[in-house]
């Protein structure tokens, strides 16, 4: 048996899964030190810097997961065409990569500027909302239609995977909204020191993100399982 025809793309896709989840675990662990009142403000600032650095990895993985997934779908002989017509022609795959790299540039800029430039933040939000809408529609159609896009291999597992990806992006936006009070409170901590009110705001902001974090972890793990097992697929 020879090598898989697109094995390296599968390796990339799985690597993105691993670093997405692993990076998120690192962010969660370091956030516990940010919330420790017993540490000095400088030590907590160092923990925050580590947390922020680790958080860039999952953001990169989230974005690149889209074009790597589209590339795999285009290469898959079981679902790459319908009625003899390619579902994912080369120009569509190339356009997806161009879009994703542009989105990645915006996401990295937003991460590094920490919201100091409203236009960058708004652009990133708009892109994510657009991706959420498009992916949700594609996922629902793929799971509901008898032969979505004329594909006869029962790709409902793929619809579920796309829906989970959409859910993870949505949860990420929930985290951003929940963390909005964090920045001003941490700035107060660094400027004037800890107070009960500052500690409550920090803890409420960070711990309020936990339900969204759990949704992301569950979505990433479930999407990985669907991608590997492909339940119900006729291959």
UniProtKB/TrEMBL annotation:
Q: What is the lineage of its organism?
A: Bacteria, Bacillati, Actinomycetota, Actinomycetes, Streptosporangiales
The answer, when asked if Transmembrane is one of the entry's keywords, is: yes
Q: Which UniProt keywords apply?
A: Membrane, Transmembrane, Transmembrane helix
Q: Name the domain of life.
A: Bacteria
What residue ranges are annotated as transmembrane?
6-35, 56-75, 87-109, 125-146, 158-175, 209-229
Full protein name: DUF5134 domain-containing protein
């Amino acid at each position: 048996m020879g090598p898989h025809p697109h094995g390296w793309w599968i390796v990339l896709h799985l690597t993105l899964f691993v670093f997405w989840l692993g990076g998120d675990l690192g962010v969660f662990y370091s956030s516990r030190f940010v919330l420790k009142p017993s540490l000095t403000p400088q030590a907590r600032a160092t923990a925050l810097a580590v947390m922020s650095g680790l958080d860039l990895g999952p953001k990169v993985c989230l974005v690149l997961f889209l074009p790597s997934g589209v590339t795999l779908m285009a290469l898959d002989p079981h679902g790459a065409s319908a009625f003899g017509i390619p579902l994912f022609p080369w120009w569509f795959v190339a356009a997806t990569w161009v879009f994703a790299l542009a989105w990645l540039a915006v996401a990295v800029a937003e991460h590094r500027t920490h919201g100091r430039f409203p236009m960058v933040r708004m652009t990133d939000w708009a892109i994510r909302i657009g991706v959420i809408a498009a992916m949700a529609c594609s996922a629902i159609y793929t799971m509901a239609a008898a032969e979505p896009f004329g594909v006869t291999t029962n790709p409902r597992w793929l619809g579920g995977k796309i829906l989970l990806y959409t859910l993870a992006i949505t949860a990420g936006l929930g985290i951003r909204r929940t963390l909005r009070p964090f920045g001003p409170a941490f700035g107060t901590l660094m400027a004037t020191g800890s107070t009960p009110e500052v500690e409550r705001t920090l803890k409420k902001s960070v711990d309020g993100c936990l339900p969204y974090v759990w949704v992301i972890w569950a979505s990433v793990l479930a999407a990985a399982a669907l991608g590997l097992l492909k339940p119900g697929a006729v291959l």
